Fold this protein.
Amino acid sequence: MPGHPQPAPLPPSARRSRRRRRSLVAVLGAGLLTGGLAAPAGAADDPGRDGGGGGPSTSVEPFGATPDGTAVERWTLSNGDTTMRVLTFGGVIQTLEVPDAEGEVENVVLGFADLEGYVSEDDPYFGSLIGRYGNRIAEGRFTLDGATYQLPLNDGPNTLHGGTVGFSERVWTATDVSDDDVAALQLRLVSEDGDQGFPGTLTTTVTYRLDAGSRLTVHYQATTDAPTVVNLTQHTYWNLAGEGSGDVYDHELQLNAGGFTPVDETLIPTGEVAPVEDTPFDFRQPTPIGARIRVADQQLLYGQGYDHNWALDREDDGAREGSDSEDALEEAAVLHDPDSGRTLTISTTEPGIQFYSGNFLDGTLVGTGGGVYRQGDGLALETQHFPDSPNQPEFPSTVLRPGEVYDSTTVFELTS
C-alpha cells in the first residue's frame, strides 16, 4: 500500500523429511489461558528461525497498514514440521503448513498473500476471528432485559459476523508470550459499549500456543461490564489437499449430529431442530461433501450448498451457564482427504457447528499460492452457539453478564 512497507512474499512450502509422528492438534477456544507465562523465548529475536523440524520459534515482521494508517504485523509460530502465520488484523490465521502422508508440507488453509485482500470488502472472512456475534442475527435486532438493540445490516436484511466492522476488521494488540517449550502469541481487543450496536464493553483475549507436541491452542476469553450477547468463532477455510489444489467435494465429512437448524430464504433459522435422517444433511457416517450437494433440496437451494448449523449430539449440552469452561470437550466432526491422507478431527465444548461449503467463492479472489478460488475450493467448520440465538429462546443462550467469563474450546487435530 502506498506510503507503507509492503509485506514480504510468502515463502514456498518447504519439502521436509518425513517424521514418524504425523499429528497436529489445533485447539481453538476460550478457556485455556493460563497466567504467569514465562518471558518470551529468544526465538522471537531470531526472525530467521521458522521451524523446519526444529524446536518452537516465533518471529514478527511488518505487514503493511490499514487504510487509516494502523500498522499490521505478521507473526510466525513454528514447531517441528508445523508452521502457522497469524496477522494482527482480524487475528487471521493466514497459513497453516503441515505434512501429508508422504511427508510433504503444504498450506491447508485459504487466504490472501497481502493485507489488501483482507481489508477489501470482498474478503469472505478468510481465517478470521469472528465477533462479537458469529453467524446471523435476524434483522440485526434483539431484545435483552427489556431493551432492544439495533445492529448494522451487512447480509441482506440481517447482521452477519458482528456487523460491518466486526472483530475480523480490527487490529488486535499482540504480545509474544512464548517460553522455552511453547511458541505463543496473545491477542487482545477491547470492544467499547455500543460498538456495532452491542451493549457493554467487551474485553476479549485470544492466545495461540504451539507446543513441542505440535499442539496449537487458541484460547478465547471475554468479559463484559454490562449484559450482552457473545458468540465467538474462528473462520478458517480448510482444504486438506493443499491450498489452491481445487475443490473439496471429494473430502469425506462426518458430523456427530442427528439434527440441524433449517433456515429461511435469508439463512435465518426457523427455530426448528430437524432430524438429518433421509436428508442431504445426514453426515453421521463419513460422506463425500459432493455426494449430495446438487440434490434439489430447498435447504441446499437457500444456501447454494451447505451453509447451515448442526446441533451436535452431546452428553453435555454445551449451554452457557456463565462460563463454557464447565462444558465438556466432545468430538464434533471428522474431515478426511483421501488423496493427501490428511484427516482433521474437531472436538468442541460448543453445542453447534456451522458447515459452510465455500458456496460463494466465485473466481474473483486470488489466494496465497497465486491461484484463483472458485466455488467449493475450501470449507469452513465453525464451532459455535446457534445462529440468531438472541431471538430464539429455545436455542442455547448466548447471554454474557458482568462477573461471568466467556470460555469456549475447540480442538482441531490434523493427522496423516
User: Anything to note?
Assistant: The domain at 23-415 is CATH 2.70.98.10 (Beta-galactosidase; Chain A, domain 5). The longest strand covers residues 54-65. The CA atoms of residues 249 and 289 lie 5 Å apart. The two ends are 39 Å apart (CA to CA).
